[in-house]
Amino acid sequence: MGLEIVNQWRGNKIWGREKRWIDVRDPQDNSLIESVPAASAEEMHQALEEAAAGAGIAANMAVHERMAILHRAADLIQERTETFAVTIAREGSKTIREARKEARRCVDTLRLSAEEARRINGETISFDQSPGSENRMGYYGRFPVGLIGAITPFNDPLNLVAHKAGPAVAAGNAILIKPSSLTPLSALLLAKTLEEAGLPSGVCTVVTGHGSEVGDVLVRDPAVRMISFTGGVEAGEAITRKAGLKKLSMELGSNSPVIVLDDADLEEAVASTVSGAFWAAGQNCLGVQRVYVQSGLFDAFAEAFLRRVRTYRIGDKLSEETDMGPLITEGEALRVERWVDEALHKGARLLAGGKRDGAFYAPTVLMDVPDHCQLAREEIFGPVVSLYRVKDLDEGIREANRSPYGLQAGIFTRDLEKSFRMIREARVGGVMVNDSSDYRIDAMPFGGTKMSGLGREGVRFAIEEMTETKVVCFRLRRH
Fold it and tell me: Could you report the per-residue pLDDT of 253-294, keeping only the tens digit for each?
């Protein structure tokens, strides 16, 4: 697993290997999985120099070469799905079933990247539409930005890395990835697989280390022409202040709402919102955090929702029977506990859960959460969902839009007109009709409004962000 990969690179190219190490621990029992290097600022500078040279190599790779490498890497990951899944599950919070899904999605992400590489095209331009330009003709094309710096979080340690590395390689860029110090093994495993698939050295580099030491170096370096960041709002705002004049793509989380109207399919709405709230122990930027249920269905919905939550099986992540594992650290579980306790102290009602055991926090359902507590305003990033009773769609949309975030939202209804009202009026990057907010495929544009970020991911759309438009015009001689 991680040990095998680190040992293969030890003595070869792995930044920081001779100095300090970061222990990667299983949050379930705090057992040591592996230790990875803690690179210094100086070593990050050295890695960036090599990655900048890699940008020249990447830009000169033919499209068919990029495609072949990405397809080979996808094949290798598909063959080794269980190895990747166990790595994801052990270093993070996902159960083995959740981790297998992430590994399969990574395969899709790389295949999509390979296919989109052939479609990085431009268009001809009719220059003679402007008087005096009769003897000119030309076109525009899309060209790689050069070196991309990527900073990735712990919650999807493989596929979120693939969503940055796959499009970067497809577009002819080099990429230097700084993964979460909590879950670096999946990123190392992916980079090693790309290398095994034929990607030249320097095109995809992973540097493990503490963000406080190497993050600023990565963000500020003028050779880095784009930063692709997934993480929290505060960190995102800090990056925008430090990065200077370079491209920024940011996915900064959410406080996702779902509206359930009286005419909804009750069973479908309950199953989808429970899964959306507690997938990966709620550590999911698309996770359902607020559910607004129309009055006529509220009591039946709440009863069915709680009944389903109480069947959730919490425990060993590697067990096929487990529905939910621990949070990423006990510190995160303590934070979630504090937020819930604050809401209860200010008048919220506890319907289920509210109990912590180490890094485990029970699936928790609240009602009557007051507006002036953190749980109502911020992203909980834990297994906590709040139910609200609303009179009608107008109130539901109004309440959903009160959040400063706007990543995705869901609505359950059989009424097409009401669906389109939600689509028009919800201030979010995506509206899922008869699905919870927690729905995504890797080919769709993904990103949000307001505090949820800048730009869009999703392979084709990430490639657009990772390329620059260049205009070419020929002035022809008159005959």
Answer: 899 999 999 999 999 999 999 999 999 999 999 999 999 999
**CATH of region 2-252+453-471:** 3.40.605.10
285 as an active site residue: the answer is yes
Q: In this structure, is the dihedral angle defined by the CA atoms of residues 182, 185, 188 and 194, taken in order, positive or negative?
A: negative
How would you class 423 by CB atoms within 10 Å of its CB: exposed for 0-12, middle for 13-18, buried for 19 or more?
A: middle
Active-site position among 91, 195, 251, 332: 251
Q: What is the band of 9 on the pLDDT scale with cuts at 50, 70, 90?
A: very low
With a cut of 70, say whether residue 5 has pLDDT above it: no
Query: What's the rounded Cα separation, in Å, for the pair 226 and 177?
Result: 12
Q: What is the pTM of this model?
A: 0.94
Other C-beta atoms closer than 10 Å to the C-beta of 479 total 4
Give dist(CA 356, CA 340) in Å, integer: 11
Closest CA to 62 of 124, 116, 141, 117: 117
Task: Return the CATH fold of 256-441.
Answer: Aldehyde Dehydrogenase; Chain A, domain 2 (3.40.309)
- What three-state secondary structure class fits 12? coil
Choose the catalytic residue: 285, 332, 379, 464.
285
Q: How many CB atoms lie within 10 A of CB 79?
A: 10
* H or E, element range at 6: helix 2-9
